[in-house]
Amino acid sequence: MPGRIYRTYPSDRDEPVQGALLKPPASRGKLASGNHKGVHVRYVAALLMPLILICGCEKKKAQITSVKIEPEKPGGPRKLRKPSRSHPDGKRYPEQIKNRDPKTLLGGERGLDHVGVAVKDLAGAQRAYQKLGFGKPQPGELPQGLRNVAFQFGDTTHLELVTVRDAKKNPWVASFIHKHEQGALFLMLCAFSYGETANLLRRRGFKVDEARPGRIKTRGGRDGHYSGDTKPPMWHTFAISGTALPGNISFITYNRGLRNFVLFKVKDAKVRKKHFSHPNTALGLRSAWIAVKSLARAKKAFEKVGLSAGRALTLAQLGSRAQVIEAGEGTLLLMQPDQGKGPVAAFLKRRGEGILGLSFEVEHLDRARSLVESNLAVKLEPYDGAHGRSVLVPAERAAGVWVELFQGR
Predict the structure, then answer these.
(1) Superfamily of domain covering 111-408
(2) DSSP 123-149
(3) Which of 37, 76, 144, 180 has the fewest CB atoms inside 10 Å of its own CB, making it the most exposed?
(4) What is this structure's pTM?
C-alpha cells in the first residue's frame, strides 16, 4: 500500500470537503490565524482501498481548500464534530455499475478481481514480478496475520503477494507456505452484493459462510480511515462452505462508496497512465488457470453456482485440454492434463486441484517480451494462445505461478 493521505473536515457540518486529498501536514498541532490563537484543526487519515490510495493525489490537490477557524471558548478549544462514518466519497460519485442484474451471481460486477500468491519470501517474490515488468508495488498489512504486496492495474484488477506475519492468526496460509513454499493459493470474484449473491447460492442448494469484513494497514503499521471495529469495512469476503469449487475461490464485495470512487477515477486515461502503468504495459488480469482432474465434473460445478461455460481448447504449451468459464469481465481456464503428461499433470501430482497460472493482457507484447528476456536472460517464443499472441514465463521464475503475457486480438 502507498503512504497515507489526509482529508480535512469543516467544523459546521458532518460532510467532508469533497476531493480534498492531501499530503500529510507538516504539523498537527495548534494553528494561529489573526486573533484566533490555539485553534485545533483535525486531520483524519483517509485510507481507501488499495486501488484508490494513489488516485487523486495530484499536486493541484495538495493544498487545503478551506479550513474554518473558530475562536476558542472558555474552558478549552471547541471540538470539531466527527465526520460521518459512511464513505466520504459515497455521495459525490454515483453508482458506476450500469448493467446491474441482482438475479445473477455477480450482480453486474466485474467478476475476476484478484489472485493471491502465497510466498515464504515476500521481498524475493516482489523482485521476481518486478523483473517481469510489473511496477508500483504497494505493501500493506492485513488483520488476518498477513503482510502483502499488491500490483494494481487500471481495470481495477490486481495481483496480490502474501506472506504470514502471525501463523496463529492464519494457519491456513502458514500451512500452505510450510508445505509448498510458494504458489497461487486463492482467487476472488468481485460481486455487487453479499446478500444477493449469498441468497442466489442458497437457493441453488449451497451453504454460504458469513461475510467477513476486511481492511488494510498502510506501510508503517498505522490504521487508516476504516480502522477499528466501529468503522465501516473497506470490503467483505465470503465463500461457499466446503469444497464446491476447485481453486479456493471466494467472493469479495467492496464498500460501494469506495468502489464507485475507483471506477469513476479509472475512466480517466491520465489517471491510469500516471498511477497504474507498468513497464511491461500490463493492462490487467484477464484469466486464472485452474488445474482439475476432470473437466466435465469441474464444468458442471461452475455451471451449478451460476457461471456459464465458454469454448473448449487444446493448449499444447501445457500439454492439456481446457474449458473456458466466463467470470464476468474475466475468465477461468479449467485445465486437465492430456495423456497424463506435462506441467498440468505435474502440478496435480504435487498439489492437487488448484490455481496453476495467470494470464495478463499487455498493450505491447514485443516490448514486454524484450523486457522479460533481458531481465531473466531467457528466450521467450511467442505463440497463439487462448487470448491472442502470447509469451509464457515458467512457474519457477514467478513464485510458483505460470505467467502468460498476451496482446489481445
Answers:
(1) 2,3-Dihydroxybiphenyl 1,2-Dioxygenase, domain 1 (3.10.180.10)
(2) HHHHHHHHHTT----EEEEETTTEEEE
(3) 76
(4) 0.77
